[in-house]
Amino acid sequence: MVLAEDFLGHAVGATEVAAVSHGDPQVAQGTALDVTGRPTWNLFLEYWGSASGTSGQLQYDFKLGAKQGWYSYAGVATLISSGPTEDGGYTYTFTGGYQLTDGAGDPGMPVHGSLQVTLRFWADGTSLYATDVALYEV
Questions:
Q1: For residue 30, what pLDDT is reported?
Q2: Alpha carbon 92 to chain centroid distance?
């Protein structure tokens, strides 16, 4: 996950906590780090969508937890690349935007920006094993 103050891009690692069938919502949670690598926000992400061939769409809601409370965001992304991995799995990468949907635009909190989500599946084609997220405020 990336959110920043100067270029508006902090690094974050999100841990996959649930993986079900492709059409059902997926959930990831973790801690968003600031540009110095210091844990700054709690992260909760829920996403759902589909992909077939070279087209696909992903919708998502996520929350960032700060001292002031929780901030809710939502957005839509489209598939920009997909393909097999060296271990026989498959990777899908989506890009789109996000917008603050609930919570005040307090200093230091993002309001809107772009997002990239990469989903990595095992060779069985149904088991999601990794979710990589990058957010950039614009």
A1: 81
A2: 13
Which residues make Cβ contacts (< 8 Å) with residue 36, sequence separation at least 6? none
Query: Are 103 and 69 contacting, i.e. CB atoms less than 8 angstroms apart?
Result: yes
Query: CA-CA distance, 120 to 90, in Å (whole number)?
Result: 6
| pLDDT (0 to 100) of residue 125 | 74
State in Å, rounded, how far the first CA of the chain is from the last one. Answer: 15
pTM exceeds cut of 0.85 = no
Nearest-CA neighbor of 37 among 66, 65, 62, 13?
A: 13
% of the chain beyond a pLDDT of 70: 78
**Sheet with strand 12-18: strands edge to edge:** 12-18, 26-33, 39-52, 55-66, 69-84, 90-102, 112-121, 128-137
**In which element (H, E) is residue 11 found?**
none
